[in-house]
Amino acid sequence: MPDPAAFPARRYDLIKEFVIALVAVALLTAGLAAVLSSPDVRPVTLASWSRAAGPDFTATAVAELAGTSGTAEYGPPYNHTPGAAQKLGPVGLQNAAGVRIPVDTANDFVIGPLAHAPEPPGVRAALAAWAAAPVSRRQDWSKAYSDALAKSPGGDPAKVAKGDYGPVPVLTARLLDLARSGALDGELPGGGKFYETDYTRSLLFLSDGSYLESLARTEHLGGDQWGMMNETGNYPGQAWLWLFTFWYQIEPFKSSGNADALIWGVMVLLSLGLVLVPFIPGVRSIPRWTRVHRLIWRSYYRDQEAAVRAGESGR
Amino acid sequence: MSVPGEDGAATGPYTNVSASGGWTGAVRRRAVKALPPAKLLPDTQPAYMASWIYVFGVLTLSSLIVALVSGGLLALKGPGWWHVSTTGRYVNSLHLLSVQLLMFFMVIHLWGKFFMAAWRGGRALTWITGAVCFFTAIGTAFTGYLVQQNFDSQWIAGQAKDGLNAVGIGAFFNVMNFGQMLMWHIVLLPFVLGLLTAGHILLVRWRGIVPPIGATDPAAGGAAAPAARDAR
To answer: Which residues in chain A come in under a pLDDT of 50?
Structure first.
């Protein structure tokens, strides 16, 4: 490999090039920002969810009490649900990392927020009944109410058939009231603390319902639409995640229960491949085979070929 | 007390001190030897550097600077500012679009360097730092989406947690913890990206612009005959 300093040189002003590029990019950005702006769809709150889709909110709250929601059955890092963790072949990294962000959906999402608020006597009695009942009884009440809600017209709690639901209807109705008032938005993440920057509980609760996803689908953000590659509105978003989301659309990943872990494995391998291109036989020779470099350095090759022709004709 | 000079001879306390200087002097001598001023800030380049593809490296750096400045303003005013201020919304748009340009320019730069096999001639570390810059930039941009405090942040956090949890990362890197993600986005990842970018640029200056594939030493009178292992 010859030293670059051995080749004929031409004048070049590094600082001038950098300043011109910086000004050009700053102006281009300023122009694009003025024309395109940036999307800013307001976040969904527990208040807006409960007001717009009360039955979905109530059904989700009951599932949190019953321990049948997505979060309740998630496994690590939130809880110890047996068999829920994904595996990469024989390797179970999800289990190995352990339960680092413990979430007890019944207590954290429903019972705790109600217990922290000043409640009317009926709700206090319902909380006491829930606390006094064994776990199996609580699950029976929650499951029965969940089934009854599913059968009622529009999932409306007011139209649920009579049954033995214990204190569950009182608890979830009160939680709906708290959510509609906006109080639950402050209570759920903070649990009564003043400062709070962790929205894990609120987002998990929201994600367990179907309202958030229905909004995302109307914005074309579903996993089989543009997923997290896109942004709300007509913006490109995280286009650089195209390869990551691509794998979710094809077999065997599409139907695998370990899709997330498998796709992460594939992406780590491909990323390592990109980093180590200089050392991978075959891949590192692609530039020579494709000859795209002949376009990049076309003036150099033209001069070299002219020199060779001149040398041959001079013999 | 006398100090040995570079030739090993003992000198007086105030003479020839620049030749020694302990660890600091050793680092300085090594740095100046690897990157003398004319190499660090060159005013000539090899004539083969004559293609638009060379522009995309400096365009990537320029976009990074615009992104850092606009992001710094957003961070100074607080993450809620851009939702309630027209100026803030515009600065956020500058930040978003500078990042989009950054990723666009960087991908073209990366493809260009791939087809130039720019890792040749002891430049593998230059390629590696560039590729790691690419992944660090993706991580930085991703955490940026998580701290916008809007619907996109909520949806992206909910979707991303599953992949991260499945490989055990989510237990430590919680995309739903706004405070944690803000720290990654405005402190840790930009710091790493800045260091990597500086290292990458210094490596480019140190090794010089990679010669064309197949080029031989002009002083040896070689033409375009490819060297046997040159394209690796």
So the answer is: none
Contact yes or no for B138/A274 (Cβ under 8 A): no
Residues 28-47 of A with CB under 8 A from B: 28-30, 32-34, 36-44
Alpha-carbon span B60 to B108, nearest angstrom: 9
In contact, B119 and B126? CB cutoff 8 Å: yes
Cα(A207)–Cα(A72) distance, integer angstroms: 12
Sign of the torsion angle spanned by Cα atoms A110, A111, A115, A116: negative
Query: How close is the nearest chain A Cα to the Cα of B19, in Å?
Result: 28
Phi, psi (rounded to 5 degrees) for B133: -55, -45
User: Closest Cα of chain B to A285: distance in Å?
Assistant: 6
For A44-91, the three-class secondary structure string (H helix, E strand, C coil) is: CCHHHHHHHCHHHHHHHHHHHHHCCCCCCCCCCCCCCCCCCCCCECCE
Tell me the pLDDT tens digit for each residue of B161-200.
Answer: 999 999 999 999 999 999 999 999 999 999 999 999 999 9
Q: Which residues contact B48 (CB under 8 A, 6 or more apart)?
A: A7, A297, A299, A300, B209, B211, B212, B215
Place of tokens 């076309």: A298
What's the complex ipTM?
A: 0.94
Q: DSSP assignment of A119-163, as one string?
A: --HHHHHHHHHHHHS-HHHHHHHHHHHHHHHHHSGGG-GGGPPP-
CA A216 to chain centre: 12
Polymer length in residues for chain A: 315
Q: Is the peptide bond before A90 cis (omega within 30 degrees of 0)?
A: no
